[in-house]
C-alpha cells in the first residue's frame, strides 16, 4: 500500500469518506514508519514494527508516539490504542463530543484534544470501550445534532440539554 497509486487506495477506501485525504495520509504514515524502521535497522513487517513500538510503551506514551506520525490526530491515536491494543484510550468523535456536552459530562470550554485525555483518565478502564460505543450509538440514534429525539431519550431526566439547563452546572468538575 505504501507504494501503490494514491488513487487506487482512495478507490478502495472511498466508503469511509474523505478517501483522497486519507489515502495520502496513510501513505505518509507508512513512509514515516519505513524511515524509522530503517534507521533502527529493523527488518520485520511495518505492522509488526508498529505493534512492537506501541506494545513497549505505556498508553500515554504510545498515544504521543502515534501523534508524531503524519496525519494522526488524537481520535485516530485513541482508536488504534483502544480497538487494536485494548488500551484505555478514549476516542472522541463528533457523536461522543456532542452527547457528552449535552449530558453535562464535559464543560463547554474543554477542547477535543483535552477531552481525549480527561475522559481516558476519569473513565474506569473496563468502561472505556462500552461507554465509547454507547455514546456513539446514542448520538446516532437519539441525540442527533439538529433535532435530538429528547422525548425518546432514556436519559431525559438527567440531561443538561433538555429545557436549556446550563450544562456547565451539571458537568463533572474538571472536565
Set down the secondary structure blueprint:
Layout: H1 6-13, H2 19-39, H3 46-55, H4 59-67, H5 74-85, H6 94-102, H7 112-122, H8 125-141, H9 167-170
Helix pairs in contact: 1-2, 4-5, 6-8
Brief description of this entry?
The chain is an all-alpha fold and 175 residues long. Helices cover 58% and strands 0% of the residues.
Can you describe this structure?
- With about 180 residues, this protein is mainly alpha-helical.
- It has 2 domains: about 5-80, no CATH class; about 95-170, Helix-hairpin-Helix base-excision DNA repair enzymes (C-terminal) (Endonuclease Iii, domain 2).
- It has 9 helices and no strands.
- It is globular, with a radius of gyration of 19 Å.
- It starts with 5 loop residues before the first helix and ends in a 5-residue tail after the last helix.
Features:
175 residues, mainly alpha, Endonuclease Iii, domain 2, 9 helices
Give me the secondary-structure category: mainly alpha
Q: Using DSSP, what is the number of strands?
A: 0
Strand content: under 5%
The CATH topology of the largest domain corresponds to Endonuclease Iii, domain 2
Query: Which architecture of the largest domain does the CATH hierarchy give at level 2?
Result: Orthogonal Bundle
What is the terminal separation in angstroms? Answer: 40 Å
Main sheet attributes: strand count, strand direction, barrel closure: none
Quickly name the level 1 CATH class of the largest domain.
Mainly Alpha
CATH homologous superfamily classification of the largest domain: Helix-hairpin-Helix base-excision DNA repair enzymes (C-terminal)
The whole-number mean of residue pLDDT values reads 89
How many domains make up the 3D coordinates?
Answer: 2
Count of alpha and pi helical runs: 9
How are helices and strands ordered from N to C? Answer: HHHHHHHHH
Helical content class: 55-70%
Amino acid at each position: 500500500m505504501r507504494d501503490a497509486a494514491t488513487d487506487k487506495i482512495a478507490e478502495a477506501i472511498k466508503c469511509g469518506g474523505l478517501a483522497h485525504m486519507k489515502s495520502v495520509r496513510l501513505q505518509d504514515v507508512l513512509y514515516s514508519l519505513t524511515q524509522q524502521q530503517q534507521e533502527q535497522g529493523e527488518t520485520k513487517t511495518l505492522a509488526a514494527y508498529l505493534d512492537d513500538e506501541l506494545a513497549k510503551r505505556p498508553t500515554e506514551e504510545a498515544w504521543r508516539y502515534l501523534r508524531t506520525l503524519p496525519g494522526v490526530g488524537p481520535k485516530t491515536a485513541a482508536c488504534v490504542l483502544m480497538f487494536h491494543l485494548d488500551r484505555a484510550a478514549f476516542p472522541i468523535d463528533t457523536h461522543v463530543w456532542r452527547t457528552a456536552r449535552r449530558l453535562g459530562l464535559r464543560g463547554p470550554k474543554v477542547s477535543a484534544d483535552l477531552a481525549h485525555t480527561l475522559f481516558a483518565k476519569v473513565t474506569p478502564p473496563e468502561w472505556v470501550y462500552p461507554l465509547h460505543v454507547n455514546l456513539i450509538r446514542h448520538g446516532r440514534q437519539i441525540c442527533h445534532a439538529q433535532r435530538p429525539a429528547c422525548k425518546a431519550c432514556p436519559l431525559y431526566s438527567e440531561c443538561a440539554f433538555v429545557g436549556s439547563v446550563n450544562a456547565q452546572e451539571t458537568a463533572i468538575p474538571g472536565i
